[in-house]
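Appendix B: a complete holo record

For completeness, this appendix reproduces one full record from the ligand-bound portion of the collection. The bound molecule is zinc ion. The inputs are the chain sequence and the ligand SMILES; the output is the full three-dimensional arrangement of the complex, encoded as structure tokens. No fields have been trimmed.
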Amino acid sequence: MVKKNVYLGVQGQKLEVIIQPHPTSKKLSLRLGAGQAAIKVVSPPNYPIADIMDFVERQRNWIAERLDKQSPSVSYEDGANIPILGRHHKIVRIEPGTKTHSQKGAAWLEANQLYIKSHVEHLPRRVQDFLKKQVRFEINLRAQEKAAKIDKKIAAIRIKDTTSRWGSCSTKGNLNFSWRLIFSPEEVLDYVVAHEVAHLEHMNHSPAFWALVDQLTDTRKTSQRWLKLNGNQLMSYG
Ligand SMILES: [Zn+2]
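The structure of the chain with zinc ion bound, as generated:
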């Protein structure tokens, strides 16, 4: 996959254009990527970028139509509802300097509310930071435990903003995860972690690999189905 860092603005949304040259492709074809935060264009080899962008421009109406059908996106505002590990939480902004009943720091979870001490203008950023910290914690915990179970070492865990995949594993033993997994139910997160940890042993999707995944989590089937049906939803927050 070739990323050229080109974007198309549609209805106030910035869509990443991912260009994927294919050796046997004869013409350009386009689809909205995972979560529809990206447009994927398959092109013949060495196709000029300018022509590809012309093509994407001409599909603008079609793209806008598809975006309309997408579930509405939720932005991080006071009172907004977002799922954290699959459970709904209401964002509650607290003005900095306000006395709270306990020393909880700048952000905390309590009774299905996400409390954030922040000025209005910084709220989205603070929510984002909190979610990324939270997902890192949850993933680390599970990944280390599962890797220890099969006697493997994780070189590094990286939390990324990927739109095309939920997790990946490099041959060097680095595990990468999308921070958006914080919105998914706990068992789905558990499955994605098990999947990538199992790749430390098997760099393929052989029967032995899947058997190992099942050793590391008992939610494979339901989680795969959940991601297929709801994966797009994970992209609609923020
Ligand atoms: Zn895999």
